[in-house]
């Protein structure tokens, strides 16, 4: 095939992909059946993780719940068991690689291979970079980023051997755009975005396209980790339930990236605008957060 022929082919393929994308907006692919599959959710004790776990259990998944808080994790398991679902709860500190490796082996022994892995656990400091302790920055990356690597390395091999499975990582729109007072958080989520994009490409190039990946990018979610949100036009935060429902729908339709809410997809166009204008647009919208805990910054909490 000559270069000219290849260029023509690429042009035609581009048109095909555009038409397919429009078609899929109008007629989304059918949701797959996960009944009987083993689903592991980290950070399952509260917020988005709890809602994802409950809904996936309603869909027939056998839930494996990991959380550092034993009581809240057991509470999630009890909710699932109450409607006849299956749930196994494990106390896990995902900031510790050895804890992940030990519990992964225990899960394989007691439950079996994981078919769907949902990396959801995350933390947020929310302050000026120079006000955040070094250990807190390190912990942000250990939980928000490195834990994804360690869980994937534990559970991906069995998926590859079967050429079947699904890797899900809950990131954030803060993994696409920098946000004031979220320097460490944004960096950790940017890393997850890059990791999942590269891993998806690696699976494709190695012929393991039966293993699916989904990256979930919500805007601000009311899970309790953001104490003082900034919202000039009272748009409001997403609920954990609505976020989980949208994430699950994307996973079941094998979407590679799920942006929540859908209208936030328009923000991707901001990368094409002049940087100074984008900064002014952010000031006008007034969406973000104030310093969350111990910063001495004097802020106007009702900007206009």
TrEMBL record:
Keywords: Lipid metabolism, Membrane, NADP, Oxidoreductase, Transmembrane, Transmembrane helix. InterPro entries: NAD(P)-bd_dom_sf (IPR036291), Sc_DH/Rdtase_CS (IPR020904), SDR_fam (IPR002347). GO terms for molecular function: all-trans-retinol dehydrogenase (NADP+) activity. It is found in: Membrane. It is a multi-pass membrane protein. GO terms for cellular component: membrane. The keyword Amino-acid biosynthesis does not apply. Belongs to the short-chain dehydrogenases/reductases (SDR) family. Catalyzes the reduction of all-trans-retinal to all-trans-retinol in the presence of NADPH. This is Short-chain dehydrogenase/reductase 3. It comes from Sinanodonta woodiana (Chinese pond mussel).
């Amino acid at each position: 095939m000559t270069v000219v022929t290849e260029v023509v082919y690429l042009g035609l393929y581009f048109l095909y992909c555009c038409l397919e994308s429009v078609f899929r907006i109008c007629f989304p692919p059918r949701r797959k059946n996960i009944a009987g599959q083993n689903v592991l959710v980290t950070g399952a004790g509260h917020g988005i993780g709890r809602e994802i776990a409950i809904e996936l259990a309603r869909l027939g998944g056998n839930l494996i719940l990991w959380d550092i808080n034993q009581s809240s994790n057991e509470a999630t398991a009890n909710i699932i068991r109450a409607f006849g679902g299956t749930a196994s709860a494990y106390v896990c500190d995902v900031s510790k690689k050895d804890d992940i490796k030990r519990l992964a082996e225990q899960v394989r022994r007691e439950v079996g291979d994981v078919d769907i892995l949902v990396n959801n656990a995350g933390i947020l400091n929310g302050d000026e970079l120079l006000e955040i302790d070094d250990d807190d920055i390190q912990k942000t990356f250990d939980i928000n980023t490195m834990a994804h690597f360690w869980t994937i390395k534990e559970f991906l091999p069995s998926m590859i051997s079967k050429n079947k499975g699904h890797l899900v990582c809950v990131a954030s729109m803060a993994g696409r755009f920098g946000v004031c007072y979220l320097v460490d958080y944004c960096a950790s989520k940017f890393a997850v975005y890059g990791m999942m994009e590269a891993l998806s490409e690696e699976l494709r190039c190695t012929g393991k396209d039966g293993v699916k990946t989904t990256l979930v990018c919500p805007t601000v979610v009311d899970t309790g980790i953001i104490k003082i949100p900034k919202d000039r036009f009272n748009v409001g935060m997403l609920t954990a339930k609505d976020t989980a429902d949208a994430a699950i729908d994307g996973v079941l339709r094998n979407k590679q990236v799920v942006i929540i809410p859908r209208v936030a997809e328009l923000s991707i166009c901001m990368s094409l605008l002049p940087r100074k204008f984008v900064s002014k647009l952010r000031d006008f919208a007034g969406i973000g957060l104030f310093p969350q805990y111990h910063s001495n910054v004097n802020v106007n909490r009702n900007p206009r």
